Amino acid sequence: MLDVHPPDHAVHSWRDFFVHIATIVIGLLIAVCLEQAVESIHHHNEVAETRRALAEEREQNRETFRRNAESYLGTAALFQNNLRVFNYLREHPGTPQAKLPGVVLFPPNVFEIATASWITAGETSVLSMMPRKEVTRYAETYFELNRALEGYNIMTLAAAHAAAYTAQTSDPSTLPPEKVMQEIDLLEQANALHMLYGLWLQTINRKQPDFVPGLTNEQVFAYSGLANAETLREKFREAYAFTQRDLDSAHSMLPLNDR
């Protein structure tokens, strides 16, 4: 607050009056400028501190991404292994555990992203002080990370359902045929969701090149029977003609400006 004091002596002329008013105005302007300068410095420090916090959080998330991308194929191999075991039990019920083509294991890794700094920034006015493009880049990164986290959590829940039988026994060969069939369904669901999670990881790397390693399509679908369109077109030309007809029909219904 700026204290405005009355003049020390009486005002005897218009000149004295205007000099006094000008002194007050100049004082107020100086006070406002000083206040704005202090506020600007404070805002600058807030933005700088937020950028440092977000940069540190990005490094944490890059490390989390690295660990999970590197463990992706191992998890896919475990699902494939488990499916092989239970498919064998379906064809050869009662086979002793020691004679099965593998031991059933479930992935132990955890995917957790760091978001505290981003949430804190969003709860204050600091983001409004930063360039819009910069804030948009941050938002896109956290959106992609959260989408991958959501995919991972859904996949993990499916894997937990598949592993539920272990609460009763660690020996899958003791399960009745209907339980073996149920287990195959649960593992197939978990495996499909794991591939979807792999696609989200792949998207993060494509949009955020410093999040490495990137997964190729061959790695994402390494243990599945999925084939890409080009392969199927070459292998089954006659059958693919019907598929192409449907694709062309769908494309023809798009608005012209979307083609």
Our Rg estimate from Cα atoms comes to 32 Å
Strand content: under 5%
SS content category: mainly alpha
- N-C termini distance: 62 Å
Average pLDDT over all residues: 87
Give the helix level as a range of percent: 55-70%
User: What's the total count of β strands?
Assistant: 0
What is the count of DSSP helices, taking H or I runs of 4+ residues?
A: 7
Sheet with most strands: none
Please provide the ordered H/E string of secondary-structure elements: HHHHHHH
The parts where pLDDT drops under 50 for at least 5 residues are none
Give an overview in words.
- With 259 residues, the chain is mainly α.
- It contains seven helices and no strands.
- Helix 1 (14-91) packs antiparallel against helix 4.
- The protein is elongated.
- The model has no long low-confidence stretch (mean pLDDT 87).
